[in-house]
Design goal:
Number of strands: 8
Oligomer: single chain
Order of helices and strands: EEEEEEEE
Number of helices: 0
Strand content: 35-45%
Largest sheet: 4 strands, mixed
Radius of gyration: 13 Å
Strand order of the largest sheet: 1-6-7-8
Helix content: under 10%
Length: 98
């Protein structure tokens, strides 16, 4: 039997967006928003978009197994199987994915 705790992943996303900012760096990640366009046009809302230096890949989160820190808002978010929900908001801190 696999211990589920080892399947959980936490990572930093730049924010929630319908399309990425210009000139992303390798490893830049976003939660795809409700109306993806541009480089995100083939993504589904709620997916994690990750830039590898040339292309964007899209990861579909599973129920409860992915937590992210939103660097834009300072929120710790968890996917509940349907949507991203805020668990905690960090204040007076700077978050970075670098």
């Amino acid at each position: 039997m696999i211990d589920r705790r080892f399947l959980d992943v936490s990572l930093i996303v730049q924010g929630v967006a319908n399309e990425p900012a210009e000139n992303p760096t390798i490893g830049t990640q976003y939660i795809v928003d409700e109306m993806p366009t541009g480089d995100f046009e083939n993504a589904e809302p709620g997916q994690i978009a990750r830039y590898d230096g040339e292309n964007w890949s899209f990861i579909t989160p599973k129920d409860g197994n992915l937590e992210v820190i939103n660097a834009e808002t300072g929120e710790l978010m968890r996917f509940d199987g349907t949507e991203w929900k805020t668990k905690v908001t960090f204040s007076n801190q700077t978050l970075s994915s670098s």
